[in-house]
Write the structure tokens for this entry.
Amino acid sequence: MILSEQAKSRPKQKDSCPCLPKGRFTGKKTKEILMKTIKNIGLVIFLIGLGIFAALPLLGTYKINPSTLDEIVTKKRIKSEIFIEGLQKSIVGKEFQGMQSLSPLVGSAIENANTQHVKNKEYKKKIYTSASEMAALIGKKSGTGFMTNNKGLMWFLTFGFGIIGALMFIVPNVVLLGKKGIKNDGIYHENSTNKGWIAWLVFIFLVGFYLILYFKSEYAVNWTYLVDPISESLSGNPAGHWFVYGFMYCTVMTVMAVRMYIKYRHNVYQMIRTTSVLFFQIVFAFLIPEIMVRLQMPYYDFKNVFPLDYDFFFQWNLNSLLDSGGIGLFILVWGIVLTLVIVPVMVYFFGKRWYCSWVCGCGGLAETLGDPYRQHSSKSLFSWKIERWLIHGVLVFAVVMTGMTLYSFFAETGTVLGLKTQSIQNTYSLAIGSVFAGVIGTGFYPIFGNRVWCRFGCPLAAYLGFVQRFKSRFRITTNGGQCISCGNCSTYCEQGIDVRAYAQKGENIVRSSCVGCGICSAVCPRGVLKLENGPEQGRINPTEVLLGNDVDLMELVNKK
């Protein structure tokens, strides 16, 4: 009763405990709403830019005059009067809306001319330039109207909107993701990362983009106008469709690298690795080759290694290098030394990750643009069997083709064992260089994971894998006793390795397919996985599984 009266007499205090958390929650919620709003606005801006970019192949005005046609005929050394007369009648002096109305006429003129020349056995007059390439050249020279007069504006409405929108969508994740560390949730609940309708739309766009680049380059003419000023400032030449690809490649990697920096900001190794692939792609694969052209040198990417650079020993390339004097000879020697000496030595010390994860542009795009799709890489035994047969088959194909090429070069013959060397080269270029490496290798990211090409088709990856598997100090070691079987490592493995199965048994991961990206280690909540380049001594070996209740645990670790 006394306590009750005392309680009644006390002044009623405001309960502050619920208020403070509520205030903090409100502030946090407001910030989250603001960040999500920025993301949504950025997404809209990005989609507008992407939409304009995607529509450009079907837009534009083209009008060719006689002087322009004469220039093209001279440049391509065309001797076919039939072809020239056909173009003069069908396209000269006429205005065309969109490449879809111009390209068929060019293709028809080439087909009619070649048919007559073959019939008359006038093979020197036959046109060997493809209809797509010829239409692209004519379109590039004859473009008129808004596109050609407003290149800067159109660049801003496409690339500019894309960059700004993407960054507005990505950067708010600094707040929305919360504290540093991997949040392995939601990836199988989003249409963009679980093969939903968004992923399929991305798949269609990427495949379509690569099909245009490789097989219908005339439809990329309007894209070339966007980057003409950049190309002219670097090489002194107007942009072609491959310059568009190179610029877009670097742009996408840079923007998506920002996402990598945010997502993996808890791991210094991932920050350095991402910076490394950006540097080598932008500087070595894009800027230096373009500047070399401006300096009257051969176009060459010094980081590109045979057999990934499969045409390095092709006759046209060898002749070009040998005709370029000292710099050409240096490039030839450098390419051979890089393949036979530097690659195996670097793999021995650092594993195939020195190239696949630190240097390679294909790997760089896979790690940036492709990172949201890494969980789609199949971990099944069937996929592993297909992987081994395919990737080693491509390597054998590349080596045999190169052997035939070198024999033909030195023997001055076009055939080996009755097979035309040029036909073998064309087959490899189409099937592996274009379809596999390009269309499938990147276009299939949203469906089959980000390392489709690296895992199943790259001949250099197969070569590096041989060395890594049997003669390399690089291993991913595991502390099996600490594994909680969360599955993060296997989910994030882009090479289809069931890392968890190794970790549970405390076995080192020595698979030749491992590119050493280190993501499995970065997403492990227990520090089970460790990337090591040191000597075999002191490693955690399969016979030394560390258990949490092992009385000699600290003694064992200290000995390491």
The chain is about 65% helix and 5% strand. The chain has three domains: 61-144, 182-470, 474-559.
